Each structure stands twice: as structure tokens, then as C-alpha cells.
Amino acid sequence: MNRNRWYEAGLEHVWLPYTQMKTARPPLAVARTTGCRIVLADGGELIDGIASWWTACHGYNHPHIRQAVERQLAEMPHVMFGGLVHEQALTLARRLAALLPGDLDRVFFSESGSVAVEIAMKMAQQYWINRGEPRKTKFVAFKGGYHGDTTGAMAVSDPDAGMHDVFRGSLPKHVVVELPADAASGDALELVLARHAESIAALIVEPLVQGAGGMRFHDAATLQRLRGVADRCGALLIFDEIFTGFGRTGTIFACEQAGIAPDIITLSKALSGGTLPLAATVGRKNVFEAFWSDDPRKALMHGPTYMGNALACAAANASLDLFEREPRLEQVAAISEQMTRELAACRDLPGVKDVRVKGAIGVVEMERIAELHALRARFVQEGVFIRPFGNVIYLTPSFTIAPDELTRLTRAIVKVVQL
Ligand SMILES: Cc1ncc(COP(=O)(O)O)c(C=O)c1O
To answer: Which residues of the chain are modeled with pLDDT < 50?
Structure first.
């Protein structure tokens, strides 16, 4: 296994994500992907339960996306977005504006989720600067939240569950509180916010599902409460839909289930159908209007080099075609029903704290997981790629997964949890 020359020669030089390099088990060498399968360099095959950190919503190598990227590659892989625009980016911006709720209308492209969050934060802060309220620089964020690994994004992630506790002393300080799960805690949050109103720029939350902070769910009423509190306290509301966007919770965007729109939304991951890095920060009309001025200092001074990359935008346009042409939301509903039925077997097993499903997200929360590496290896032995973290075993498969492939994933979880 893993006997390729490139593997042996290169592994000494690569630094892997979220990994203690000294103690980690060697990563699996992948030769290729197809549908919902990962084909290993040693010829083995794993059914993928994670869809590459929730990106590959149509399965891997979908021919429609591949052909769109190939066509674009022949024409123009990339051109700088400063002073130049192109069809793929403008078409994508128009389509996203049409798809998003309310007047979320102005799309700022970037290349990763964390950067999209940084841009959202900068947008919110400058919105207030441009409106003559420069002291409104702080954010209200929520326990269990995760918004990325760059400095600004780390500072609004849960200091404990957000993986960055070693930086606790050095990150900018914001207000991190519990999500208001009922009316009383909504009132309590409003009191806190009212006290700090002159310094709060925005609230930031992952709507319906807090992903990397523990796959925790909350309901639509919580989001409506946040919308009300933000409005009454004069703060913007940012929804980070980098995980939840594009069908994952059962609707194209999670905020649709609450019937509200945020002032700024961040998108990435499944935006490009899992093929190329792409992200977007989208502002409502009133946000954009605060930057619309004869004063150059009121412009949003941001511009990642690969912003609006033509290949990535072509992939995203093709991915949106697939959401229009293929029954993705019906597939999510079927996955949801199947996971609910099949993961129920875990409910009464020793060590299991909770089993929950929302859209195409299935979670088995354990009291604790002592040997994370060993557990991950057990799943590989079962022929599946499932990557538990913290005390959570979860499935976020591609929406195109076949029922028998999904059963192999849920059976593997039931079997491994039983041991
Ligand atoms: C909700 C949310 N926001 C932001 C990010 C950061 O995205 P990226 O890893 O592309 O920087 C993630 C990644 O998991 C996420 O789930």
C-alpha cells in the first residue's frame, strides 16, 4: 500500500491540514475519484461519506462540470479581475443574485471560505465607517460556530470548539455568546447588544447548522430572533452559508427555511460543485449603497489575485445548471429520510449521546471519542471514507449517492460504533 515513488518522495515535504505531523497516521494515497467513490493508489476503493469537506455535491467528475471547465480552459483559464471582467464571472454574479433571497444583489468573488468571511467582516466594518459610525467594529458570534482559519475568521469562531484555542490571547476580541434558542434568551441577547450597540458592526452565524464546531443544529425561529435583534440594535446580520449553501440542509440556502435574508451572505464549498476553489461574499443593496460615492476612500479595498477565476466560475455556472436540471433537492430529501431510518439503529448503542439528521447531514454524536485516528482507520477497513472529529461521527455525502452506497456508509457507522 502507498508504495508509489511520488508518495514516498513527496510526503517528507508536505505539511498537512489540522495534523500533528509527528503522531498522525500516514494519509491515504488517492489515484482518482469517480461518482461517490475515492479510488486509492493501491487499487482499493472507498465510498465517500464526506464529499471532500462538503464540496462535491454532484459527486466527483460530473461530466457537465468537466466539459464546462475544459471549454473554458481552451478559451481563457484566468484573467485578472482588476479593470477586466468576463462572461463566466458576470453570468455567475447575475445567477447568484437571482437565486439568493431578498435583495442580496452584489457579488464579491474570492477563492476560499475563510477569505469570503474576512471580506464579509471588512464589508460590515467599512459599511459603518462610510456611514460615519467608525466605532462599530465588533462582531457578535456564537458558541459552537466556525468561520475559518484566517485571523478575522478565527476571532469569530468558538474559542473552544473552533480549533484555535492556542491563539486565544492574541486574536481580536469580539462578543461570543450562546445562540438564543428561545424567546427569553433572545431578550437577554438583545439586552447585551443594546448595551454595546455603539460598538457592534454585525452578528455572524452559520444558519441552521454549525458545521465544523460540532455539527450542531438550531431552528428557523432562532434565525428570525437574530434578524429581529440585529434590526432593533442597529447591527448588520451576516449568514455564513459556506457549509449550508447549495442544498445541504434541504433548501438551496438554509436561510430560506426561516423566511429571512441576511445583510451579507458568504458562499463557497459546493459553489463550484467541488471542482475548483471559489467563494463569494454577497451584500444587500443597502450595504452596497454605503460604498457608492465620489469619495475613493469609500471603496471596498480588497482584490484577491485569483478573484473571479474563469475556470472556477465556469464550474460554478455548470454546477448551477445541474441544480436547475437535476432533482437535487428531492435527492437531499431522500438521503435525509434514509439516513434518519438507518442511523436510528445507533440510538440505543452504548456511548452514543445523540443521533440527528438535517437535510443531507447525518450525525452520530458520541459521549466521547478516545481514539480518533483508530476510529478513522476502522472506517477505511470497512471500505468507507468517514472522518469523525471531536466527539462527532457524521455523513455529508454527495447528493447523487445511490441508496445502496449510502447504506454501506450507515452500516459502517452502526458496526463501528457497536464495537
Ligand atoms: C461555515 C464555514 N465557514 C468558513 C469556512 C472556511 O472555509 P475554507 O476552508 O474554504 O477557508 C468553513 C470551512 O469548513 C465553514 O464550514
So the answer is: 1-2
